[in-house]
Design a protein that fits this description.
With 355 residues, the protein is an alpha/beta fold. The chain contains 13 helices and twelve strands. It folds into two domains: 3-172, Rossmann fold (3-Layer(aba) Sandwich); 175-353, Dehydroquinate synthase-like, alpha domain, CATH 1.20.1090.10. Helix 5 packs parallel to helix 6 (175-192), helix 6 (175-192) crosses helix 8 and helix 10 (260-278) runs antiparallel to helix 11 (286-295). Bound molecules: nicotinamide-adenine-dinucleotide. Residues 42, 44-45, 48, 71-73, 76, 103-107, 109, 129-130, 132-133, 136-137, 140, 142, 151-152, 169, 172-173, 177, 180, 260-261 line the site of nicotinamide-adenine-dinucleotide.
Length: 355
Amino acid sequence: MPKLTIEASKKYDMIIESGALEKLGELILSVEKPKKVCLVSDTTVYSLFGDIALDSLEDAGFDVNVIKMAPGEQTKSMSSLNRILEYLAEHEYTRSDCLVALGGGVIGDLTGFAAATYLRGIPFIQSPTTLLAAVDSSVGGKTAVNLKAGKNLAGAFWQPSLVVFDMDTILELPENRFKEGIAEIVKSAVIGDAGLFDYLMTVDNPRILDFVETCVIASVKVKSRFVHADERDLGPRKLLNFGHTMAHGIEKISDYRISHGQAVAMGMLAMARAAAKKGWSNKDCTLPIGQVLRKYGIDPACDHDAAQLARAALNDKKRRGDTVTIVIPLEIGDAALMDIPVASLEEIFRLGLEE
Ligand SMILES: NC(=O)c1ccc[n+]([C@@H]2O[C@H](COP(=O)([O-])OP(=O)(O)OC[C@H]3O[C@@H](n4cnc5c(N)ncnc54)[C@H](O)[C@@H]3O)[C@@H](O)[C@H]2O)c1
């Protein structure tokens, strides 16, 4: 059973295993001793895996409550947060009880934020069921909801006590969702693991669990390196935002019809192209990034307007006064942060979007 350890202000494990959900209850008992467990999921995920998780939790002796949310990004909202918090209060949850997030990044971010704020913080467990959540959002402790003005504008750093990834859940994942995870894996490879990038270029059949396991382990290792160095996102952790400033703009102006992973793919290619045109990269990464994305059926072309994107992106938290931090690939496996004036962002986006 592969196990990774994430060392942030709190040290915790990520368990990566086929069938891990059947052991969810006993795995939780190895790190927390809650009386009550509130399982938060979305209706799609719950219909697929809810019973397995529930049986396991009940078999381990927990008093279990279930909250089912609507699937989709719109659920990452203040009203969903409010619903969870009021539910916990009504059911008299205490600081020694815990939340379990069973789902993708939406459920993980929302549940994590509820755990961070209820009674000023109670334990929570991440059980990711999308590739994107397994390789990225379930570790590192960033929790959030969206506000009208933009993505993730209200949130907290709050680490889970444990991450339980049942690889079998990925077998049910629709193809487009699978590709969104691939985009985040490509991101990890570009910023910190050239070997992972080479591996991605050689694989013939990605829809097998060996591939999933290899990519999750490699990506989480890259992420945990940056989280360990800079948990609160003041320095090197920002490298994980490669492609994300533009991506958040794309998501926002498409009213979240373009998914996070797809938007990240577009943002990465554009930033690689802009960095190459500006002479900031040691090697032009545009071609390999475009190639690897297309190999996995992801079209990174973006036809949004640079000015509109820059306006939307500037609501992003990555802005600091008159400057905004962007991530540029130096070569595959290495990236750097660069502070640019807010006024230059539109030009960078334009350079990135023009082939
Ligand atoms: N906290 C972080 O560090 C971090 C990092 C990256 C992304 N994110 C956030 O993650 C969110 C995106 O996460 P996501 O892509 O997992 O989206 P998601 O949670 O909306 O899940 C995508 C869809 O797949 C369905 N689904 C989930 N698991 C399934 C399965 N195994 N089989 C079939 N269907 C399944 C869900 O019901 C949903 O409709 C965004 O809000 C993004 O901002 C957070």
